[in-house]
From TrEMBL:
Names of the cofactor(s): pyridoxal 5'-phosphate
EC nos: 5.4.3.8
Protein name: Glutamate-1-semialdehyde 2,1-aminomutase
Location in the cell: Cytoplasm
Source species taxonomy: Bacteria, Bacillati, Cyanobacteriota, Cyanophyceae, Nostocales
Source species of the chain: Aetokthonos hydrillicola Thurmond2011
Cellular component annotations (GO), alphabetically ordered: cytoplasm
Amino acid sequence: MVNTTIRTTKSQEIFNSAQKLMPGGVNSPVRAFKSVGGQPIVFDRVKGAYIWDVDGNQYIDYVGSWGPAICGHAHPDVIAALHEALEKGTSFGAPCVLENVLAEMVIDAVKSIEMVRFVNSGTEACMAVLRLMRAFTGREKVIKFEGCYHGHADMFLVKAGSGVATLGLPDSPGVPKSVTSSTLTAPFNDLEAVKALFEENRDEIAGVILEPVVGNAGFIPPDAGFLEGLRELTHEYGALLVFDEVMTGFRIAYGGAQEKFGITPDLTTLGKVIGGGLPVGAYGGRQDIMSMVAPAGPMYQAGTLSGNPLAMTAGIKTLELLRAPGTYEYLDNITNKLANGLLQIAQETGHAACGGQISAMFGLFFTNGPVHNYENAKKSDTAKFGRFHRGMLEHGIYLAPSQFEAGFTSLAHTEEDIEQTLQAARDVMSSL
Ligand SMILES: Cc1ncc(COP(=O)(O)O)c(C=O)c1O
């Protein structure tokens, strides 16, 4: 859609300058809007379900800083707790009681986690968990799924979905073949393919890592029996099962996908929500495995800012807010209205579409589907998604700038926000 109805002069000026200062003008690729066309808007501030750009336009936000903002942006309780924590300093680089508090909350909430280690990002958590899988099993190979993203560490940049897919890069230059040769891939929801890999690589596979609900190839839930099947296969072949819950943790249920689907992995990675908007990641799991991590055991992993008091504080407050009764029912209810509404409008306006939602995570593909894996997702009309995205932006709705990203709602989104979003979608889809 070329007719810009919102003024974005300042955004354009700032982004033009940014392009001379930072690669592509951004510090994370998908923010550059490459796959939807047009220039990104530059944010000025965020509050609740809304964002404001530097030109003063207001949008309803369905990105939520890519997941952390599940209580709404800049929640007053989180901000107040951060103010208090700030007075005591920003980083200790030493033990602090806040680490115990958040660790206990995570251990109480996430069934598989008996011990946890905090790091600074989801990438770091996944990188460390892979080292731990290898250290514990004494095996090198790992199975991941096409379209699943586990951060940008070398060994995971194979069929890695989201940013990589959005930019059309099959892999990344700079990643040595020797590193990725131990990374085996299978289509999501394909147990037979996983079994075949185990058979071909007997006693060599350390474990299987996956997004239990994929969010980095668009929203793709597991088929009935898939997660159970992986649990059985990993047991059968003496390998570990790792849920990357950086996105799903505390989002699709307080206890994550493992609570939602009743499957207990051996190890879990977390990020996003548990930092309440500050940089955080975590990995945890069975005590016998976690005891291998230094200094309790020989597997080295460390971090200057890990467990810093600000991130711990924002995480603790966010989880406290999420523990309130009715939270996940509310999230499920509004997100269900949104996802169903979008599908219905797509059908009424004559667009091939499919999609769905679990709790506060949703997706819409411009293809008839069904979408069970990344190959199916790639059949989406991405050019149409680009026009849809631009149109929604011009109607004051901020969606993730890629067909291959899930959307997020928050406790701050109201029924009226959803109504307004659906009205905008009707207008935009009618003119696509
Ligand atoms: C499932 C999953 N794992 C890992 C990561 C990497 O996390 P981070 O961006 O904090 O490094 C992401 C980021 O989107 C993710 O969605």
